[in-house]
Amino acid sequence: MIVIADTSPLSYLITIGELEVLPRLYQTVIVPLMVCDELKRPGAPVEVRQWINRPPDWLDIRTPLLPADPELIEADLDEGERDAILLAQELGADELIIDDMSGRKEAQRRNLHFIGTLGVLRTAASAGLLDFRAAIERLRETNFYVRQAVIDQFMKDFGV
Question: pTM, whole model, 2 decimals?
Answer without folding.
Answer: 0.93
